[in-house]
Amino acid sequence: MIFNRRNFIQTSALATLGGIILPHNSYSKMKNGVQPVKGLKLSFEPYNLQLKHVFTLAGSSRSTTPVMLVKIEFEGITGYGEASMPPYLGESHESATKFLSALNLQQFTDPFRLEEILEYVDITAPGNAAAKASVDIALHDLTGKIMQQPWHKIWGLSAEEAPVTSFTIGIDTDEVVREKVREASEFKILKVKLGRDTDKQMINAIRSVSEVPLCVDVNQGWKDKQMALDMIHWLKENGVKYVEQPMPKEQINDTAWLTQNSPLPIIADEALQRLTDVQKTVGVYSGINIKLMKCTGMREAHKMITLARANQMKVMLGCMTETSCAVSAAAQLSPLVDWADLDGNLLISNDRFDGVKVVEGKITLNELPGIGIQPV
Asked: How many CA atoms lie within 13 A of 39 on its CB side?
């Protein structure tokens, strides 16, 4: 049975998407005067990303990241997607395989019914945000290719408005930190992982070789609000522009106090997953960091940006360790945001795609249709 919802508006003559109106099934090929009935074909492949450097956060370290590479095929056209699953988020090759195997996308013969298809994907099982994002990304890639347009253009966005991206410096020894900073000399802003007792040492190591602006991600590493405020004042003096998730997400009142008194914007990361979380951050944080792997993909990320702007919040677009597939998908939204941290593909040595580029630190969107990638 085709998935359906009573409140989903269907039209037999027209399909609309992102402001573009096109004849219903105009993309289908005619054979002997009859349109073939053919559903979406989903396939997937487990893959492990190899990091160029060991990646250390406030509470963990790793040298690899499991991902699931996804394809959705329709009438000879293939859309690509990806689920990146760092262990701390609770997804794995096994969980993604189980979830994706449970989907029946062949029941859908119109890939442009994104709302209906992705609602079906979302309610199939709770959680599995990254696995759901892989389907969302592949569908956007597929439909963009059918329309022969990149998604930033479908959304009416200008590639020139894409921001610079930060480059991430993980927690490490002074020597390795300085080496990483030298390797990132083309970037206009660096993102520094903090949250341990070496925080000032990390900043001082960077400042010994570079004066580039910084942002910091504490990954919930600070527990005391007064200590956090004192640290933020010190960070501001050392060229830091904003602070991600300084305190545990459960310390809502302490974080609200910190945001009210902080000289720098405080950005929600771990405290934010999906659209329903955006309103909870209002009055607690200055802005939000949206990641496709946490919010189930491009469709929901776009809605989250709209809601955050309606609440006068800053918006950051982030990523996990990912191939150029997922990073390029997120980059399609980048002209809408204040800050971007889309460097996940630059941290790995075995990318399977060619996509968005960083030129002199700036996200540079190409004109390839869909999410702007090619498999390599």
From this structure: 12
Phi, psi of 362 (to 5 degrees): -100, 140
Q: What is the SS3 assignment for 15?
A: strand
Residues 80 and 138 sit within 8 Å (Cβ to Cβ): yes
Taking residue 352's Cβ as centre, other Cβ atoms within 10 Å add up to 19
Tokens of 158: 């200008």
Longest dimension (CA), the chain: 74
Res 265: pLDDT: 98
pTM of the model as a whole: 0.87
The residues, ordered by sequence, that sit 6+ positions from 348 with a Cβ below 8 Å of its Cβ are: 49, 50, 51, 52, 65, 321, 323
Annotate 35-44 with b (16+ C-beta within 10 A) or e (fewer).
eeeeebebeb
Integer Cα distance of 100 and 366 in angstroms:
30
Q: How far apart are CA 236 and CA 130, in angstroms?
A: 34
CA distance 287 to 306: 13
Q: Are the CB atoms for 363 and 343 separated by under 8 Å?
A: no
Closest CA to 238 of 284, 194, 197, 196: 194
Lowest mean pLDDT among 124-133, 177-186, 257-266: 177-186
Contact of 72 with 325, CB cutoff 8 Å: no
Q: Tell me phi and psi for residue 200, to 5 degrees.
A: -65, -35
Residue ranges and CATH numbers for the domains of the chain are 14-23+40-153 (3.30.390.10), 159-375 (3.20.20.120)
What pLDDT digit, counting tens, does each position of 285-297 carry? 999 999 999 999 9
> What average pLDDT does the segment 95-108 reach?
98
